[in-house]
Structure formats: C-alpha cells, structure tokens
Amino acid sequence: MNKLKAAFSQGDKKLLNVYFTAGYPQLKDTQTIITSLANAGADIIEVGMPYSDPMADGPTIQESSKIALQNGLTLKILFEQVAAARAQTEVPLILMGYLNQMMQYGEEKFLDSCVQCGIEALIIPDLPPDLYGSDYKAMFEERNIEIVFLITPQTSEDRIRYIDSLSDAFIYVVSDSSITGNSRDISSEQREYFQRIADMNLKNPCLIGFGISDKKSFDMASSYSSGAIIGSAFIKHLTNASGDESLDLTVTQFVHSIKG
Amino acid sequence: MNYKIDEKGFYGKFGGAYIPEMLHSNVMELQENYLAITQTEEFQTEFRSLLKHYTGRPSPLYWAKRLSEKYGTKIYLKREDLNHTGAHKINNTIGQILLAQKLGKTRIIAETGAGQHGVATATVCALMGLECIVYMGEVDIERQKPNVFRMKMLGAEVRPATSGSKTLKDATNEAIRDWINNPVDTFYIIGSVVGPHPYPDMVARFQSVISREMKEQLQEYEGRSNPDRIIACVGGGSNAAGAFYHYLDDEDVTLVAVEAGGEGIHSGRSAATSILGTEGIIHGSKTLLMQTKDGQIIEPHSISAGLDYPGIGPLHAHLITTGRAEVVSIEDGEAVNAAIELSRLEGIIPALESSHALAALDYLTLDKDESTIICLSGRGDKDLQTYMKYLNHE
Ligand SMILES: Cc1ncc(COP(=O)(O)O)c(C=O)c1O
C-alpha cells in the first residue's frame, strides 16, 4: 500500500496536512521542517514549490515564495532536499506548485524526479481536471504519482463526481471561495457546504483547506472530513525561527498546538 | 493557416484556460455566454450606439502628409487617441460592461498598467452606475499620476499592487486574486487580449471595430481596403489585435507588431517578449513569456507602463511563431524621439505606447508607392511628465 493510502487507513483518525514553502525561511530549512513536522505528528506534508506568480495564493505564501527564490531555491535543489528528508521519514509527501514550473522542467522528467525523491502526489492548482485527463493521466499513472484536485463551494455536483473519478488520492476541499491565507470563522454556509460534500460519499477521502489556522478550525473542519490542511498559519509561525534547533522547536510546538 | 480561435480556445498551440478550480465557474460562465450574448442584434445595437455617441467613433483615419514626406512613403494614422478617454481601451470596456450587465454582475474589477484601461473601466462603471475597483502597480501609480486622479475623479477605487516589479503583471495577479475571492457578484474586465479563454477572443472582437473602420476608410482614400502594412504596438496586444483583426486572412497585408525593447533587448531591462520569451503559462493562458529555465517569470522593463508586461496575448504568439506577423523592438529613447517627432511634424502628441509603433518606421523598408497604417493607440497627456524629463535633458 502506498504511504498516502496508508495514512487514510487509520480508522477515524483525523489527519493533519501541513503546507510549507520549500527554501523558507532559509534555503537549507526544507529538510529540517519536513523531519520535524513528521516527528511531531503531522500526517501528510505538502511541500510548496515557490513560484514567482502564485495566482491561487495569498500574501503569506506569496511572500515566503519570494524569499525562498531570493534564497536561491531551484527545482533541482528542492528535489535534492526532499530526497534527503525522505531518507529519514515515511510520512507521505506531496508537492504543490504551478503548471508552468512543471512544463519548463519537462513534464516527464519532473515526474521522474518526483518518483526518485519519494513524492506520493502532486497538487497543481492551474492544471484543470479535463486537461489532466486528456494529456497527463497516463504519464502520472505509469509512475504511480497521484494527483489531488481542488473543489470549491461553486463546484457543481456533477463536476465533483467527475473530479472524484479522475483521482485516487484525496479531494482538497477549498473551505471558502478564496485564495489561501484568509482566515475567518467558519460560517453556517460553510458548514452546509462541508456537510453536502460529506453526504456525497465520494470514493476519495476529503481534506479541508484554506483558512484553517488553529486547533478550533482544525477540529471543526475535521468533523466533516478526514482532516484538514494548514498552510499560511504555519508559515507565519515559522517567520521568526532561525537555526535547526529553534526551527525544530517551533515546528513541534505548532503541530502540538493543533493535535494536542 | 487559421488565425481565429478554435473551439477549445486555442490559436494553434497558444491560448487555453489554465485556471485554478476557484475560477472555473466564472470562466465557464463567460465561455458559455460571451458569443451567445455579444452576437445578438440587441447587444450589437447597444454596443455600436455607445461607440458612436459616447466614444465618438468612427475614429478618423488620418493621412499624415508631413510624416509621409519624411519617410518617403504614404502613412496613415488610425486615430484611437481621439476616442473618449484617450485610447483604444474604451472599445473593449464598453463591450465588457454591457456583457457584465447582461450577466447580472454588480461589482467590476480591472487591472491597469498605463492607467488607460483603468480610466476606460472607471468611465463605463460611472456610466452604468457600477462599483469599480482598479488594481495598479505602485510603480505605475507613480509614473501615470494623471490617470490615477482621473480614476478617482470617476469614482473608482485604485488599489496598489505591491508585489513583484509593482507593474502590470502584478496588478493582474491582484485582480485575479480579487476575482477568486469574489466569485459570484464580480466581473473582471481584462484590458488586453490576455488571460484565460474566452478573454483573448472576446477582447479582440470588441477591438476589431478598429480594422473594420480602417477597411472602409482606406477605401475612400485609395479605392482599396487593404494597405501594404499595418503597424501596432503590443503590450498584451489589444490595439494590435483590433487593428489586425479583419486583415488576418489577407496575406497581402504585412502585419508589424512592435514590442518594447526597454533599455536594450539584452540589457536585462526589456519587455521584448517575442525575442526573449519562451512557451509557457501566464495569467491562465499558454503563450510566449519571459521566464527563467525554472519557469519563474522575469520582471520586464519598459519606459511605457502599457508595454511593461512579460507576456503577449496568445493570438500574437501564434501570429509571430507562424510568421504571419513581423516583430520590431524599440528602445525607450527611440520611442520618446518618435513622440517628439510626431508632435512637431503633425501636431499630435502620442502616448508612449503608440510612440513605439511610430519608431518602428525607422526599421522598415518603405516603398514610396506603399501605404502603411499605424495604429495610434492613445494620446500622450498621461506621459507628459516622462516627456518633460527627456526634453529638459536635450
Ligand atoms: C495608449 C495605449 N496603447 C497601447 C497599450 C498597450 O495595450 P495593448 O497591447 O493591449 O494594446 C496601452 C496600455 O495601457 C495604452 O494605454
């Protein structure tokens, strides 16, 4: 069984998926953050590939991406860092980035690098499901790399079922119509939307993301799903950490504050 | 060769809609409705009526005799600078605001570089009584101040984009984010032939009035509707798309797209996308763009805020890579000199963007029996600050 499937096969356990931007705050921090997150109890780790123009992301991820790029992060370095972390942990690793990054690297070569460094799945927000189906699916399946698609409150039921049929990892339920990093209280409308998705009995498990920032919102979102994804709140928490020990402590504190 | 959009939203291999799921319902709504609505008799009547009575169309095709004399050929200027608000941008904003109304949208957002599209959007929002928010890079807010004041005067809110190079690309990113955050009531009026399908085709159709008029007007001058050559500047490429549109299949007409060379193509401060660019994705469409080999978008530079963009519309990527259009790139100083030249030869102060098209004359072989139409996309009022700086140096 692959690592991602195994993570979702632990009964009713609610999974914490943490996103961070590779190469931030310091270039070499990627590996420490992955291993610290895994040791502290994060169930899935999403490694962000910093992009100059991250259309779906808010100011926090945008800023961390800019700094990571200034730090000199390239995809080649990122793959090396992930491979080094993979040697130390069994936690499922997902890569998130934009289609142009994958295109310029060369799609097949990119997927081969993912296999080599132990990535289980990809999230490419600007790769639309139908294009994935027609142009990319075979390439992914050949290498056992999974794809994760997003759905939003505007996604129709038919489309959700179509997206569910195309992937075999989990569905990323965008909590609100928004870019990442807008945290507000979860509204009754959102609860209805989460319930509606839960009632659809999809083939794939669902994780709720965008705007999840603390234990309260994590627990709330998880009560409608298999767990939740935290990104911007974690990155903000990292901003002041420097040096491996301080970083490890900061990461551990954060994970415990959510799962404790 | 086919130069029109295909049913999937591509010009050859360029175009498409590479958008996150958060934009899917909005973009689909447009894809499904833009032709059905804009091709109705009712829509066309309203659109043409506003273009005529509000904008002042048709814009003149002016035979520039002194300029022609200087270059030893026949040069006409398509006077988009004489439109209400001072540029071609209003042709498109009138079309899109009518569409927004038909779709029941109540909140309008736009990006702007030179501020001409922002002003044109603020103008039609005032006309229709709709809320208007314009995103503009901080650098452009500084260099195009008169247009910032105009937008405010018209009741629009101008929000600075502070990321990246703080110019047009970054303003576009912010507008897209706003649209993601407001998926139900908001209509995004894009200012050029860029963005996900159907924007490039929709904007080209609204701007195509430029070449429709050119055909009739040249007929009156010369008894033929086709010139030998059409020159237009390309930021995203909307005035060029409009000026080329009805001539795309007339291969006897040479199309010249003029890009901003900035401080020199290889100076590291340029916006010469077709030369420096490679195939990639920007703002939801596949096109030519300036990027690193890792796919990070490179910050462009041009003296002209409207041309300071690291990509080009997918139609132009197709025209250029198939050889249908030629490209000339013009440096900052050459554009300013062309502006001064036109001012003194013809009494017309052009926008910095349009000055790039004028400066291309120096790079073309022009026969005395040939006719060339230059799309004079806008007037230079907004650029006086920049022109003054150069003149004071003289
Ligand atoms: C006068 C004028 N011309 C040209 C442009 C460039 O836009 P496009 O390439 O879409 O025509 C602008 C953009 O702001 C403009 O103001």
Average predicted confidence as pLDDT of chain B: 97
By DSSP, the count of extended strands of chain A is 9
Distance N to C terminus of chain B? 48 Å
> How would you describe the shape of chain A?
globular
The average pLDDT value of chain A, as a whole number, equals 94
* Ligand list: pyridoxal-5'-phosphate
Largest sheet data of chain B: 6 strands, mixed
- Secondary structure class of chain A reads alpha/beta
Task: Give the termini distance of chain A in whole angstroms.
Answer: 28 Å
Q: Name the overall outline of chain B.
A: globular
Q: Indicate the percent of residues in helices of chain A.
A: 40-55%
Greatest interface (CB-CB under 8 A), with counts per chain: A-B, 37 and 35 residues
- Helices and strands of chain A, in order, run as HEHEHHEHHEHEEHEHEHEHH
Describe the structure.
- The complex is a heterodimer of chains A (260) and B (394).
- In chain A, helix 2 runs parallel beside helix 4 and helix 2 runs parallel beside helix 12.
- With 260 residues, chain A is α/β, with parallel strands linked by helices.
- In chain A, strand 4, helix 7 and strand 5 form a beta-alpha-beta unit.
- The mean pLDDT of chain A is 94.
- By secondary structure, chain B is α/β, with parallel strands linked by helices.
- Chain B is 43% helix and 18% strand.
- Chain B has a six-stranded mixed beta sheet with strand order 3-4-14-9-10-13, with helices on both faces.
- In chain B, strand 5, helix 5 and strand 6 form a beta-alpha-beta unit.
- In chain B, helix 5 packs parallel to helix 7, helix 9 packs across helix 11 and helix 14 crosses helix 15.
- Chain B is globular.
- The site of pyridoxal-5'-phosphate (PLP) has 21 residues of chain B, from helix 5, helix 11 and helix 15.
- The site of pyridoxal-5'-phosphate has 21 residues of chain B, from helix 5, helix 11 and helix 15.
